[in-house]
Design brief:
Elements lengths: L2 E6 L7 H8 L5 E6 L3 H11 L2 E4 L4 H7 L2 E2 L1 H6 L4 E5 L2 E5 L1 H12 L5 E5 L3 H12 L3 E5 L8 E2 L2 E4 L11 E2 L2 E4 L13 E2 L1 H17 L5 H6 L3
Parallel strand pairs: 1-2, 1-3, 4-6, 7-8, 7-10, 9-11, 10-12, 12-13
Antiparallel strand pairs: 3-5, 5-6
């Protein structure tokens, strides 16, 4: 039986095992490889798993280890999904695909500002640009004066100085575990991004369609 997993640190809080289980009715095993040493986590993947999801702080490390890269993965320079193929390990970026789906659904968005430039931030910026939106980036240490755009995508894991001075119609926050911006009237929860990237990513991992309705129940 093929096995799947998530690597990163820390990840004990992750909803991914429940989400993957819901996607396939518990058909496949999905583990958390919580390891602070990337090389050890990667070796575990190589030895025992068909495909893995990758989260912080390993998205760029994993990118450098892949033998093959999807177009969006090359575009972003980071991966959150690695799959074994006959030609080698292939990297994808379903973070990019999830953000692209959200941006394309917002017809009133012409400008996008991404806060933070880790793996998720890189994916969000590239996706917004590729959707034809005017996109800009603000790093966490330059947020003190706030930011303004039709859509702000906040990818930082916690509140940063200036986070209350964000002017936008829509606000997408990547952090779905401990959100800090959910009081915004145009708030789009990180669970939406998480779900959309999972729907795309899991099919790449298994080759099978997912049960979206059961996946949505995980967030209730």
């Amino acid at each position: 039986m093929d096995k799947f997993a998530l690597i990163g640190y820390p990840i004990a809080h992750s909803l991914s095992p429940k989400l993957f289980g819901a996607a396939y009715g518990g058909k496949y095993r999905y583990d958390l490889i919580e390891e602070s040493d990337f090389d050890k986590a990667w070796k575990t993947f190589e030895d025992s798993y068909k495909a893995i999801n990758v989260t912080a702080p390993f998205k760029m490390d994993a990118f450098s280890r892949c033998d093959l890269l999807s177009p969006e993965c090359e575009r972003v320079g980071a991966t959150n999904l690695c799959v074994k193929t006959p030609e080698g390990i292939k990297g994808y970026n379903s973070d990019y695909l999830g953000v692209r789906a959200i941006v394309e659904s917002l017809a009133d968005v012409e400008s996008v500002c991404v806060i933070g430039f880790g793996g998720a931030g890189k994916a969000a910026l590239a996706a917004a640009q590729d959707c034809g939106r005017k996109a800009s980036l603000i790093r966490h240490d330059a947020l003190s004066e706030g930011a303004s755009a039709d859509l702000v995508i906040y990818t930082l894991p916690r509140a940063a100085e200036g986070y209350t001075r964000l002017e936008c119609t829509h606000l997408l926050e990547a952090n779905y575990r401990d959100p800090v911006l959910k009081a915004h009237p145009g708030y789009i929860p990180g669970t939406r991004w998480h779900l959309l990237q999972a729907v795309t990513g899991y099919k790449l991992m298994t080759g099978e369609d997912v049960d979206i309705k059961e996946m949505e129940k995980v967030y209730l």
